[in-house]
Design goal:
Layout (H helix, E strand, L loop, with lengths): L1 H18 L3 H14 L4 H13 L3 H15 L7 H22 L7 H9 L5 H7 L11 E3 L4 E3 L5
Antiparallel strand pairs: 1-2
């Protein structure tokens, strides 16, 4: 019971940090959460989001892929919830590829809308989806030195 309460409180703190643009704080909180509750898919996804928002798409990709492995193990999620999470992660993996390859994001708004329209529990949707358009997500990824560039993708 204590572990579930800790996880819920930590998830809220991570989401608040990411939503307010405090990406490093969010990444640190998510890292602490994953170290204590490593199999919690929501925590894994938020850690991946935080890495992506900090301009670390390769680290984000690793965490998203780990979350994909773990998502089928959550007994409380319906089949629709699992599909929604799969689509969410796929969209984020695509965003990682765009950053690594320095390509522009053309169809993201349309994809985000379609993902949000998928049947899944409203609680999961409300707690999980941090739209990168709502935050100042990394500008560009410089694959030569693994750092973000300041030029905007939008």
């Amino acid at each position: 019971m204590f572990k579930e309460l800790y996880t819920r409180i930590s998830l809220v703190r991570v989401r608040q940090a990411l939503s307010s643009g405090q990406f490093l704080k969010g990444r640190n909180l998510a890292t602490a959460l994953v170290s204590k509750a490593g199999d919690d898919v929501r925590g894994l996804i938020l850690l991946a989001d935080a890495c992506l928002f900090c301009g670390e798409p390769l680290a984000a990709k690793r965490w998203y892929n780990y979350a994909i492995e773990k998502k089928s193990e959550n007994p409380r999620w319906s089949a629709n919830d699992r599909k929604f999470v799969g689509a969410y992660i796929s969209n984020r993996l695509l965003e990682c590829s765009f950053l690594v390859n320095n390509e522009s994001k053309v169809a993201e708004a349309c994809v985000v809308e379609q993902i949000n329209e998928m049947p899944a529990s409203q609680g999961l949707k409300a707690r999980l989806f941090v739209n990168s358009e709502q935050t100042n997500v990394p500008r560009r990824y410089d694959s030569r030195n693994g750092r973000k560039r300041e030029r905007s993708l939008r």
